[in-house]
Design a protein that fits this description.
516 residues, mainly alpha, 2 domains, 84% helix, globular, disordered C terminus
Length: 516
Amino acid sequence: MARPIRLIRGAVTVGLWTLLSRGAGFVRDVMIAGYLGTGAMADAFNVAFALPNMFRRFFAEGAFNMAFVPLYARRIDSGEDPATFARDALAGLGTVLVLFSLLGTLLMPWLVWAMASGFAGDARFDLAVDYGRITFVYILFISLVALLSGILNSHGQFTEAGMVPVLMNLMFIGAMLLADRAGWNMGLTLAWTTPVTGIVQLGFTWVAAARLGLAPAIARPRLTPEVKRLLVIAGPVVLSGGIVQINMIVGRQIASYTEGAVSWLVYADRLYQLPLGVVGIAVGTVLLPELARRLGAGDSPGGREALNRAAEFALLLTLPAAVALVVIAHPLVSVLYGRGAFGAADAEATALALAIYGAGLPAFMLHKVLQPLFYAREDTRSPFRYALVSMGLNVAIALGLGAVVGWSAAAWGTTLSAWAMAALLWRGSRRMGEAARIDARLRARLWRIALAAAIMGAVLWALALGLGGWLDQAGMRYGALALLVGIGAAVYFAAGAALGAFRPGDIGRILRRKRG
């Protein structure tokens, strides 16, 4: 039992830092919405900022790390010189990233067109190209940060890596305040802040790893047998990540033909990414090395326990968040974003996208729980096949509904294809034996968690109607939203405790272990 508690404790640590990061990131996004609204400059920056962050899914926390972390974790346990493996991986990744950054900067007009062809012929296209040429090098720095973070996490050092995203968001907030005071162009300020934050994040992570004696040595790239093995495993994950990015591109292409729609989707994405990032990234970060160790040692019962407790912890927090995002989408958006250049029409559109994304939140969370099971077994081909099916469904939904519902088809395609991917991952995991089976505790608690979330949703819906006047008043809306969220959380946890969805003693044991 101690290992699952340590797993959840690690997830709590990562989750708390991610919560701080997402909280600061939300403040950043609220400021961007206030300064830029959803006009040409906002759409252009959102596309330019999305480009390096899209490709980082290949080189950073996506494909590369999903292949690197299990191999590195097993070398730690077996004593097979993990430092040399990390050095060679860093050299190879760094070389590829330098070349890729140069190529992407040169081809920026084509990249922008591929992301948002609806920008062609208006001011958004030229702005996006200019901003993109400034921001694209961020991929080099943040991908190296992800490699170093994977090393730290594999050694159980979650705090140092968790602090890094907080730095980025604080720097953006400071840069906007400075630009507002100095009268600088806000779009250019945001663009230039992007690579600067990458440099700072890399420096901080490198120093943290060096202090612990974990920073890889600098060396020339070599195609060693270990690196070849890494590439063989990472290949299908790269292709799978490419499919995910195609899904995103399809959505942005549809949205780019409606001015402001790219920004509506981005602002909605930021809100639903808050619970997904806090819980999903935390669980995925801790679960992958844990499963790799257990399954590598032949400990299937331990792997089953770790997977079930991770799923239970994730769904306990995700299901109520999903219900809240659907039920009170408009109050959340109007109160949190409604200021400056962000008007009532923007709030309506963003709330629609948020409700659609919220319906897919549990599916995205299941991805974070189930995918490490495949990667821990070095099975990267199955998730790739599932992603192909998901991509086809997403394209069919987005294009098919686009003529009917317009830009919101992009959000519908994302959510429905996410559920299809979750179902395929679940079905594929059935052949993995004992480690992938649902245990009695999760089976008994899952329906109770869902019922508690439904009770909370009903209360939130009634409260939102009752507080409607306060939520629209400038001097009252923040307090009214805080009251709405606070009562909803209290109702959920009270209902969950009464139904047996969780036990207060479970949380107490985790906290006592953490203090110990």
